[in-house]
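User: Is it possible to get a 3D structure for a protein together with its bound compound? The compound here is fe (ii) ion. I've pasted both below.
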Amino acid sequence: MGRYTDPEFARLEFDKLWSSVWQVAARVDEIPQTGDYTTYKIGDQSILLVRVDESSIKAYYNFCPHRGTTLGEGCGHYEGGRIICPFHGWRWDLAGNIEKVLERNEFHGGNLQDSDVAMREVVSRVYAGFVFINLDPNPQPFDTFIEPLRQYFDDIVLGDMRHIWWKRATIPCNWKVAQEAFFEAYHVSATHPQLEKVGREVVYGDRDDGPMMYRDIIYDTFDQGHGQFWGGDKTPIAGHVQEPAPADDRLQEMAARMNLTAEGLGGMILKQDIDLLLTLKDRNLPPDANLGAEYVKLQYATAAAQDRPMPKMSPEVIARWGGVTYLFPNILVLLQAGNAVIYRALPHPSDPNQCTFEIRSTKTYPAAEALQRATVEEVTDPKQVGLIPQQDLSNLPRIQEGLLSRGMQQTWLASNQEKLILNMHREEDRYLCS
Ligand code: FES
Ligand SMILES: [Fe+2]
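Assistant: Yes, that's possible. Here is the predicted structure of the complex:
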């Protein structure tokens, strides 16, 4: 259980995993304007991310070469493109070149070179709307790292997704416990009984068995620790219903079902998607109409009229709507029609029994709309997140407490439905043992 609880193990993770893995430091719309900056903290390291111009972002170690002061705290904007140290006023341009050292002759016998005091860059890469960084100056090629997910992220236009909202909470559990709560749908019956009628009756009622949705879910693990699961054509979004019924009734059922996510998560499915679905009522669809297919057509036609990017219109991509994609080591992407919820779990710098967990609701916007700056809201009351994440998050402190129990000697993982967890830990071990 030490993987989740032992401070030594957490230190090993900082030394071997976080120091050499590609990791998401930010989304690009956290720093949309030239001169905007934000900071990313991992372990005891703070990284400064700066928008240098419209097309480039740089990452720097967040320190002043004079006597150490950090050059940015939280997020902000460098007026006039000047990065100024608040202690003695040394100054750099956004590209990290030194512009001003007060009383320069006093340093290094008057021979201070610009390169001695330039800002120190961290390897970074912008892809799919994420700013990735790597603390290893000679990291694994980014393309190798992202290869298993690249096609999918390109197809779903993840790079065009921008924030609707972004929330952050401190949770008393290990960062891996937090993310693993989203690695499978096996927990849905017990944790989210409102989402799974039959499962609820099996778990909380007297029923023994039945057609539980989660059994149809397809789980895939990839190289580099990544993974994915989705419901295929059995999902409600694909028009799947358990009992045949007239089209109008099925439409209401589908809307009610989508509303559980729209209201319960406040993202992934939006109110406007449900309003759009309900306009199908006016079309006098035949009783056996495929509502899922009609809904998808309507989504694409509406988005095209607004010049709003949408996921590639292919059966493979549409089958994954409603699914979850895991980007090693700590990002989850939950996709819908041009919307995605993105989770990130970050380790606490010293306590393995705590982490930071973030939820971002994003969508694609019509091309003409200006890029707004994303800002985070700190969650202190569970009511600040929807019912679905509330249910997930309420398990986490209990899991951590149980993992600390002296009576607990191992966990048991379902061979198919929990295989993303095993795949993640195998990949983590590859880093830790290198
Ligand atoms: S510490 Fe930054 S200018 Fe002195
Ligand atoms: Fe959940």
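DSSP finds twelve helices and 18 strands in the chain. Residues 64, 66-67, 69, 85, 87-88, 90 surround FE2/S2 (inorganic) cluster (ligand 1) (CB under 6 Å).
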